[in-house]
Amino acid sequence: MTKSNSADAGDLSNPGRKEMLEGLNGDLAREYKAIIQYVVFSAALKGGEYYDIADQLKKHAAQELSHALEVARQIDYLGGNPTVTPKPAEFSTSSKKMLEIDLSGERETIRNYRDRIRQAEAAGEFALSEALRDIIAEEQDHEIDLKDALGLR
Ligand SMILES: [Fe+2]
Ligand SMILES: [Fe+2]
């Protein structure tokens, strides 16, 4: 998105920056996991009542890919090495359980991005925190879609 304001991008001697980079790699690994689950679940959901959400899950998959691209770019910019390893994807043969798996993933992702925004602001990385706020807004939309599909709202 935008360039970092920081004059010391790549300075890994700063312990806050190292922790933030480790956190961002966890976020990237969660994005990969979300992509895998949304690709598979959008194809595997069964039942007329899940027709609309199956379509929404395809859009989620594309948005998770754009999040992964942005987080990887930010990690590289900050002097880190973007991970190639996803968090282990989950699966169920139950359509309802698939949506519950996705919902708990979105909640965990949102909690983690909140932590990362705090770390980014503490490190003076305001361009990063803005990019993360854009991502978190989409994760919150995903959470709402899943809650609606599960009848939780
Ligand atoms: Fe995402
Ligand atoms: Fe998401």
Tell me roughly what share of residues is in helical segments. over 70%
Beta strands, count:
0
What is the oligomer described by this structure? single chain
Supply the number of structural domains: 1
| CATH class term | Mainly Alpha
Can you tell me the overall shape?
elongated
- The succession of helices and strands, N to C, reads HHHH
- The CATH superfamily is identified as Ferritin, core subunit, four-helix bundle
Estimated structural class: mainly alpha
CATH topology title: Ferritin
Instruction: Spell out which ligands are present.
Output: fe (ii) ion
Low-confidence stretches: 1-8
H/I helix tally: 4
Would you write up a description of this structure?
With 153 residues, the protein is mainly alpha-helical. It has a single domain, classed as Ferritin, core subunit, four-helix bundle (Ferritin). The chain is 71% helix and 0% strand. Helix 1 runs antiparallel to helix 2 and helix 3 runs antiparallel to helix 4. The longest helix is centred in the N-terminal third of the chain and has 30 residues. The radius of gyration is 16 Å and the shape is elongated. One fe (ii) ion binds next to helix 1, helix 2 and helix 4. The site of one fe (ii) ion has 7 residues, from helix 2, helix 3 and helix 4.
Provide a concise account of the structure shown:
By secondary structure, the protein is an all-alpha fold.
